[in-house]
Amino acid sequence: MVYPVEALSIAGLVLSPCVSGAAYFGLHHRTRRRAMLPVSPRCLTDALTGLPNRQAFSEWMEKNLSTRQQPIGRKALLMIDLDRFKEINDDRGHSVGDEILRVLGRRLRHCMDEKKGEFIAHAGGDKFFACCSFSSQRGVMDFLARMRRVLARPVRLQGGSVAVGANFGVAFWVDGAPGRDALLTRAELAMNCARSSDQQDVCYYDPAMDQALRHRLNIVDELRHAIARNQLSLCYQAQKQISDKTIVGFEALLRWEHPMLGAISPVVFIPVAEETGLIQEIGEWVLRTACHAASQWEQPYRISVNVSAEQFHHHDLPGLVREVLETTGLAASRLELELTETAIFTDMARARAILYELKDMGVSIAVDDYGTGHSSLGLIRDIVFDRIKLDKLFVQNALSNETDRAIIRAVIFLGHSLQASVLAEGVETEEQFAFLAAEGCDEIQGFLLSRPLPLDQLVATGKVRLLAA
């Protein structure tokens, strides 16, 4: 469930983590003064792409973006982030990713005109820097157009070709302002804005981005203390059997009520928690709190807890689950962990081992938002799930979109063929309920039957009864 939040909160989400560009790329002024020793050209060249590396870029910035220059001039800095590169690495392997970087590096070297003051460097991973001098906006546009053409062309590989594409953030340095560190930060802010946009792959720095960044940093700082200050809470949304609408379980949903900022949507703070590593502490709190609450219920309902990709791959999840179950006394058969396809596909071999260890304990596993990830059939083939959760987007469009209806029918058939139950999320109308019932869906969850409720209201409404003290 997503609640309305302040516009700046959404802006904070749109701008993914914006660590200072200067700090991120090791360009702080205190590190610029190195021993005056000859530097081998090889030390300034990235071995993979053949382009100047980060050290070379730092030295270029020192030389070309200095107020000591006469005349000072005007320059544009482009920060470039390859699109879909992580997905390509995950799906096709790092050797393919390296080959793509080699090809793109060669193309970028050939399209650069050093006589015009152009400079391109590989910042590492899937990021590049490109700089150009300009006398008019047209010069920047032409330079940008060349970069876009080079990176948009598919890369031919053995067995086919791969289209990569890129996102561009543009910031301007005019008459010595802003400083070099601020210029890097502005370019990174603009690039992250482009990366988060569905409509454009190029964004120019705007001062409003600074305000959104400050808001996001404030969210990070406040989130660090949210557990200790008892600002986090859980709501529980009923999951019901479609045949008779009886409750079979509840999903635990995290909420954050800040005394000054009000209710902050999970859409805003969960990505922040994942990016900063706070999701480990928060995720453990959610698991422990939900299991403790469920252990106090008289009815043996299952409790479903979401596990993020960061939790799944950077924590001893089976060990944590085992300890929480022992501490709270909750039966393992009553705990269900919900994982997205994306979380599992990050490292399939490790994911398979973790999931089988959890299932050996008796914990059930659900794949959440099914159909919105990638390689879904391969996932279902390799890992046996206890439950498949149909994404609410399919449910909400089912009555008006034949394709979504076909997907729902296929998922229900697939789930039943594999002895997995199918739960539809986001059911809000009687018409949606009737369609799902007619198609043989097993369980539903949504506002039609129940909104998420805090534990005290859950008890007050009679949905659960507590064990006698």
UniProtKB/TrEMBL annotation:
Keyword Membrane: yes
InterPro entries per record: Biofilm_reg_signaling, EAL_dom, EAL_sf, GGDEF_dom, Nucleotide_cyclase, Rev_trsase/Diguanyl_cyclase
Cross-referenced PROSITE patterns: EAL, GGDEF
CDD domains to which the protein is assigned, alphabetical: EAL (cd01948), GGDEF (cd01949)
Ranges for domain GGDEF: 73-207
SUPFAM superfamilies in the record: EAL domain-like, Nucleotide cyclase
Annotated Gene3D superfamilies: 3.30.70.270, EAL domain
Occurrences of domain EAL (ranges): 216-466
Keywords, sorted A to Z: Membrane, Transmembrane, Transmembrane helix
Entry's transmembrane regions: 6-27
Domain of life: Bacteria
Metal-binding in keyword set: no
Pfam families: EAL, GGDEF
Entry protein name: Bifunctional diguanylate cyclase/phosphodiesterase
Organism expressing this protein natively: Acetobacter suratthaniensis
Lineage: Bacteria, Pseudomonadati, Pseudomonadota, Alphaproteobacteria, Acetobacterales
